[in-house]
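Shipment paperwork, digital attachment
Item: protein structure file
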Amino acid sequence: MMNTAPNSGVIRVGLLAAMTLSPTAFLRAEAQEAPRVSFGMATAAFEDGLGSMRGVRELEDGRVLIADGFGAAVIAWMPGGGADTLTNTGQGPEEYRTPDGLFPLPDGATLLVDLGNARLTRIEADLSFGETWPIARGGPNAGMTMMIPVGTDRDGGIYFQQRLDGMAGISDSAAVARFDPATGETSEVGRVRLAEQTRVESGDANNRSVNIRPVPFSNQDAWNVAWDGRVAVARADDYRLEWLDLAAGVTRGPGIPYEPVRVRRADQDEWLDQLGGGLRVEATDDGSGMRMSMSRAPSGSSNADPSDFEWPDVKPVIPAGAVAVDGEGRAWVRRHVPAGEAHLYDVFDAGGQRVAQVELPGERRLVTFGAESAYLVRNDDFGFAWLEKYPMPAVPGTR
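Attachment content:
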């Protein structure tokens, strides 16, 4: 049986309009030139290619947890050494079915996103399994919220993006929400702009089909969370970095100039290939009540054709999910580049100032940071993901 936390928490709203703005809140100075820095050589690489690698988390003892969703395994790897797989798959309280994200929690614990069981699970520092919470909160007739974590903080808060129109609607914005497992309360930290979507309905009242799909390369904000609870938001309009802090207010960095990247056929193909990673939700009644499960489709599984969409002339400055925060509290914001080119990141300090640009080596993507390291993934021609550990590059701008 699932061990779940209460799902009837109080909603506490803290709108940004009520925040006190910090002295740098309306900083409009010209953005400074940012030095280019690069990664050195990898110091370790996981010896096996995996079908998916949604979550990676460095533990305090140096081991690395890896979530392989398609292989249904959570792997504990010691860089330069061996690897073990945690527990067994299943629906029990100390099992998982489809591991996805991995996030740090206080006291060396880890939050596991288990899509197959539609729950969040606390893994203790000794890798034993602890408390669980349902991903879906509320009900279909009461406004269901899907709590898919984006980040966590040092007090155990879980941050997720909460749609303002329910699961099936279309809205131009969403709330950045924080769930407190200790109290069951959810609070709103701020709001972000969503990508544009189209909605097509067909059928009748007894058999209705709803198809919602994104508009290619539409402007959208991206965000993530620092360990101290500050939320870094990369604004798509008038490109800049904002830090949201319910205690200290909003800090807005200066606008960053950029040259738009033209959309060519290779960019269209790349965008369509990324459609495959979407979330699928299934609810079934097994006789004892409704049971929910989730999964992700493989990248490249979309059958869409470029002619099915209307394409803009240029890309926005940032793609979806563009923000990561390192151990020093700096925000890394991925920039759109022409298809096939190396990923490029702007790095911002706590004041929202751009302090560096970092180009990733080869065809690699950033998945997470460790205490003094970064973990990058490359995909081979067969779609397998290979994890590599790198020393952090010499980036200025600590907190």
